[in-house]
Write a structure and sequence with these properties.
Structural class: mainly beta
Shape: globular
Number of helices: 0
Largest sheet: 7 strands, mixed
Number of strands: 11
Order of helices and strands: EEEEEEEEEEE
Length: 115
C-alpha cells in the first residue's frame, strides 16, 4: 500500500534548524511531484514547498523563501525539507504530500519553534 512517513520534527529554538525527511513506498516515487505542507493551530493548511520529479524545479511560499530548502533523493524514495533560521510562526504540523494524478499524504510531524 501507499505510505509516506515523516521524520525529524521536534522542538527547536528560534534561529535554529531542523531537517525533515519523508520516506515513500507503494508507488513510483520518481513520477510524482513532492510537496511539504504545514498547518498551524486554527489556520488552514498551506503549501510550503514543491519539487518536481527530477529535483530540478522548486517553489516556496513567500513566508519561507530563503530559509527553507526542499530536495529529493529518488534512489532512496525520500524527500527532505531543510529548515533554517526558524521562527515561532513556523510552528505547525508539517505534512509530506505526493501528487501526480493521485494525491497521497503522510501522517504529519510536529515542529515547534520556541525558547
Amino acid at each position: 500500500q501507499v505510505q509516506l512517513v515523516e521524520f525529524g520534527g521536534g522542538l527547536v529554538q528560534p534561529g535554529g534548524s531542523l531537517r525533515l525527511s519523508c520516506a515513500a513506498s507503494g508507488f513510483t516515487f520518481s513520477s510524482y511531484f513532492m510537496n511539504w505542507y504545514r498547518q498551524a493551530p486554527g489556520k488552514e493548511r498551506e503549501l510550503v514547498a514543491t519539487i518536481d520529479t527530477s529535483g530540478g524545479l522548486t517553489r516556496y511560499a513567500d513566508s519561507v523563501k530563503g530559509r527553507f530548502t526542499i530536495s529529493r533523493a529518488n534512489a532512496r524514495n525520500t524527500v527532505y525539507l531543510q529548515m533554517n533560521s526558524l521562527k515561532p510562526e513556523d510552528t505547525a504540523v508539517y505534512y509530506c504530500n505526493a501528487r501526480r494524478v493521485n494525491n497521497y499524504w503522510g501522517q504529519g510531524t510536529q515542529v515547534t519553534v520556541s525558547s
